Amino acid sequence: xxEHDITLTVNGATEELTVExxxxxxxxLRDRLDYxxxxxxxxxxxxxxxxxxLDGDAVKSCTLLAVQADGSDVTTVEGMAEGGADxxxxxxxPIQRAFHEEHGLQCGYCTPGMVMTAAQVLEEEPDPSRxxxxxSLKGNICRCTGYHNVxxxxxxxxxxxxxxxxxxxxxx
Amino acid sequence: MxxxxxxxxxxARTVGGEESDGSTSGxxxxxxxxxxxEDAELLTGRATYxxxxxxxxxxxxxxxxxxxxxxxxxxxxxxxxxxxGVLGVYAWADLDASPSPGVLPIRTESxxxxxxxxxxxxxxxxxxxxxxxxxxxxxxRYVARDAxxxxxxxxxxxxxxxxxxxxTADGAPTLYETAPDNVALDAELGDAxxxxxxxxxxxxxxxxxxxNNRLIASALEPRxxxxxxxxDTERFTVEMTSQSPxxxxxxxxxxxxxxxxxxxxxxxxxxxxxGHKGHHHPGEAMAAWCARELGRPVKWTATRSENYRExxxxxxxRTSAELAVDDDGTVRGLRVDTRAAVGGYGLGxxxxxxxxxxxxxxxxxxxxxxxxxxxxxxxxxxxxxxxxGAGRPEAIYVTERLMDAAADELGVDPVGLRRRNLIxxxxxxxxxxxxxxxxxxxxxxxLDEVLDAIGYDELRERAGEPGDDGRYRGVSVACFTxxxxxxxxxxxxxxxRDGSVAVYAGTHSHGQGHETTYAQLVADELGVPYDDVxxxxxxxxxxxxGTGTFGxxxxxxxxxxxxxxxxxxxxxxxGVAADRLGVDAADVVSEAGEFRVVGRxxxxxxxxxxxxxxxxxxxxxxxxxxxxxVAFEASTRYEPDGTAYAFGTHAALVAVDGETGAVEIERYVxxxxxxxxxxxxxxxxxxxGGVAQGIGQAxxxxxxxxxxxxxxxxxxxxxxxxxxxxxxxxxxxxxVTPSPRNPIGAKGIGEAGTIAAPPTVVNAVVDALxxxxxxxxxxxxxxxNVLDAIRTAEDEV
Lengths: 172, 797
Prior knowledge:
Chain A is of the alpha+beta class.
């Protein structure tokens, strides 16, 4: 079995570790580095619960090998709020807060992936329609909410983020 | 009386049922959709699910049967045992030689045959593909899976049968010699003679042959367990994915052959259950057994495919159904004969579960005679057990499909036919012909509400004709009832001398928000700040024995238990306050955390002061002495005064493309009545999720086996769960008819959507296809199935 020394920057912290060639990124994050926010739901890239940002792009960390991420910046859901994973309800990232206020989560297992996907969606399209939001979440399965309140949350987060960011406030 | 209102309303309302003990409503929390206190840890990733628990645990993985039915000829584990990092490889012989029975308990008392329970590892026979045959424990999860691949099992294949109707045919392969016809249970419900009479006398009989498709619960978190064994105390501690911590404690004790006091079950955050995590499966039992065998913690986390292959699966009925109806639309009788798959083994009470189904067949209607025959049938498939709805969706589907078929036969509007047969508000409590005692209801108000919301009359006129886009529109309603809140729960309310309150319950929240809901209930009862109330669930050493969270029962039963305890605590606190005020307890009222003398409101003692003064009295709730910090404590074993029957009416507008068979749900409206809504936002979330799963059954989901018993839908690539793009916005409205059978006035809501959505969607699609002369299409309504129905109908013309 080949082993590799890799370096990941996870939520701003530099992490050096040795992984096997076959070690999945999600297992490196969870089992080796204790970032248990990304969850494993399907191991086939269908459910999206393991979604993280790799150099700014939302990726499913169960479909990547850890060695492929060598040298990359990884952001997990633990890195979203300014206060990190210890943030209470008053200190959440605007997207997390919108999920909270819109009851966009129930069991919470898909939620880290939903939040990370939504973050990229809103980065690319600050004012998406409901249909566009639904299309962008197609790769993230939620079994609890029926997506209704998830879509509401992303809509509401889009409003908050636009109001925060003067360059996009008010849309076109 | 009911009142219809927008489900989003978050106005404070007085709860129904029994009056609270001396407390008057101030700013009540009950009835407000406050944000959940569970959310922050789930949103930030710091929540701990079972697989998140870090430890030095070894990892367990299973070798599973590759055949649907067969005999094990040999198991060769020599290569696996030699692999570096492998700690042990086990088969049935190892379990058999140990002090543990190693067989998951089965409840056979209601069955017609004696059959063994599910062995944790297969004995000489395997009865479904995916059945655990051997277990491997290794230092890491990758090595464990390598070792699984290295175990060589030889099978003698036996003929398999996977369809419950085919399994009862002459000459079908037999799974158990004690059940030669594969029938585990042959149950009758209702009066056969009276039903026969009703059918003879009726003007018409409408018949349908129905398939209720096999489903997989698909909680997003796979099942997992982390087991430890303490040799000094001879005690197991199992942290696991469970809906029923105490239920799993009892079942694990039985499988391991130890007393319940030797098992502690701790349930951390759970990523969805839907029934599936209420059952006892081999994984947690084998992890515990291995932890004792190896003397170190053992973790087991199922892969998605393993979860799908070992089940439990759900539904899977083949049903013949008939409705006797007069020309004026009066329903006279209902007759049902259904065969329901059990799978290869009965799990717990799973084999007798189909026997519960008949109780809901009356739906919302006055049906004078009903007869139901239910056969539970062994098949070479994963075991079948309760999944969100558990028998109720199957029953309501039959009745609601028949109502539409009867309307079609009579040439009348399906809404009018339903309205004519609805049980009226003044008829409650109402005893149905299948022995259900409905507590309260105002069915017509819910029906009118949904018709208004969707604009039924206008849509009715457009239905059946292709629109401008060439698609056919269909509109539907389906009515339903739902039995909720069975069994008992215990709830403990403990007030510390600093005034803080802890609530301990035997239920378990895995998305339902009990920490929020129970705190709302108790804060209101005691008049203390919401933030002062903590809710604890999920550790059998810390919480009172409970039944668990399933069957839409937690608020009704668990919530009532904590409310009763809170009332006992309040009574004790009022006694202390009365002492301090020097008056009789009867002269003291509780108001927003203050005890006041009647008529002299300036004389008061706060709840917190009463807690501090508690050692001076021994009134009421069990009071702890000074030193342990507990001021008041009460424990209640609560069992409702009968079942609370939730109800509602859902409606859908669909568009069907006659060229491709594609179905689009353009609108979906749910009117639900679950009595008092403690947290309307959480209630609506339950409706959304239930409807989504019900639409999943109607539109896309279906577990499929080939004839040899191999599961074709063994991953999320092939088992089609609803996605954000395949569901519509789900419009919700509420009517409120409190239940008189519990102190909250609540009825359960967890499963309503899974019951209502399948007939709502199928009725709408069949309505859309009426120009083709199509009278029924079986679920799931995939493009292929719909197009097949259209082609078949066109060929027959």
